[in-house]
Specification:
alpha+beta; three-stranded mixed beta sheet; two-stranded antiparallel ribbon; 7 strands; 23% strand
């Protein structure tokens, strides 16, 4: 009855600082460590989630939780598959943030990214391009 719990706690006690696939939380063992690369917060613990919404009305049409910490650009096919399963049709265009740079098309769906802000842009233009 408690065999799975016992194996889980043995794994926690046996892990070392350089162990891969560490258990970071006893009450939520599926969370993992993500490097943020920022000065004030270097690491974050949790799961990566992709949320898809409509462009004009922001109605959520797809949500996918990822079990691994993968590159943002590699999460898009899972979200597109979820949208196609729930709505019955695949979108023609995906408007993404700059984390999805590298590809201009995934599974026949055009990817649109915001342009980087220019030095001559005013604050409003820079904030608009960050969305």
């Amino acid at each position: 009855m408690y065999e799975n719990d016992s194996l889980f706690y043995e794994k926690v006690l046996a892990q070392k600082p350089n162990t891969k696939n560490k258990v970071h939380s006893l009450h939520e063992p599926h969370v993992y460590c993500m490097a943020k690369g920022k000065d004030r917060v270097q690491y974050e613990y949790g799961n990566k989630v992709s949320i898809a919404s409509t462009h004009k009305s922001n109605i959520v049409i797809g949500v996918v939780s990822h079990e691994e910490n993968i590159y943002d650009g590699h999460t898009l096919p899972d979200v597109l598959t979820h949208i196609e399963d729930s709505r019955g049709s695949k979108p023609t265009e995906a408007i993404c943030d700059r984390g999805y740079k590298g590809k201009s098309e995934v599974d026949g769906v055009q990817i649109t990214l915001p342009k980087p802000p220019l030095k001559r842009d005013n604050r409003y233009q820079k904030e608009k391009k960050q969305m």
